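Feature request, filed as a ticket because there's no other form

It would be nice if the structure record came with a short human-readable summary line next to the tokens. Right now we just get the raw output. Example of a typical job, pasted below so the devs can see what we mean:
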Amino acid sequence: MNYQDVILSRESGWIEITINRPDKLNSLREQTAEEILAILAEVEHDREVRAVILRGSDKAFCTGIDTSEFQIAENGYFDFYRFRKRNRKVNRLFREIGSFTKPLIAAIEGFALGGGLELALVGDIIVAGANAKFGLPEIKLGMMPGGGGTQTLPRLIGKPLAKELMWTGRRITAAEAERYRMVNHVTEAGQAIDKAREIAKSISDNAPIPVMMTKSVIDRGIDMALPDGFEAEGDASFLLYFTKDRDEGLKAFKEKRSPAFRGE
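Raw output as currently delivered:
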């Protein structure tokens, strides 16, 4: 597949997807979403890929949805509603990243605004350069978040602060985002990708099936009652008894060597 809006690079154990629309500050259009979705669908079944890094440029990670995508034909609002509900690829992107079975790390430099921040929030880990700026400014345009922000952000930072940020449209710095526990790490400007790669390497060295299982149990369990979450964890943990990687991990531990996990 030839990509117009993204650049794909493959590393040893992970891939990197770079949003590449510099003239639009890496805003998302249908083409962008289609390309990211296609890459994720392909690597979902590639055992050599154990993590994904999503990045932008030094100036902007992603500034949301391309405003040209907001154009709706006269008397076409209900048609667009149906399109958005079922077929629109940008909306599918926000929904499907959450169910992707491999860790997705957002490496953010510059602006992560609106749908750009929401895109990072539906992933698993956020690493930010010191120059990063975060915000959900839709309220200033007479709109509201539409890529999951009203659901993902309060789960991370709590309802009162999430409401303040959405109702004021205020931008926050990387340091504030780290203090609010919105991001995992803040690096020097320009070095977010290095930290993201360090994390991807550490993840890719480990057994991919328990990584997948823990991701699923954490993401589903956060909305479960605690006893149900314990039950889900217990079932997933027991399933690992049937994996070859568990046997390899225990054998390597006894032999005092590094394990060679294969995702089996």
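Something like this underneath would help us a lot:
The mean pLDDT is 94.
The chain is about 45% helix and 15% strand.
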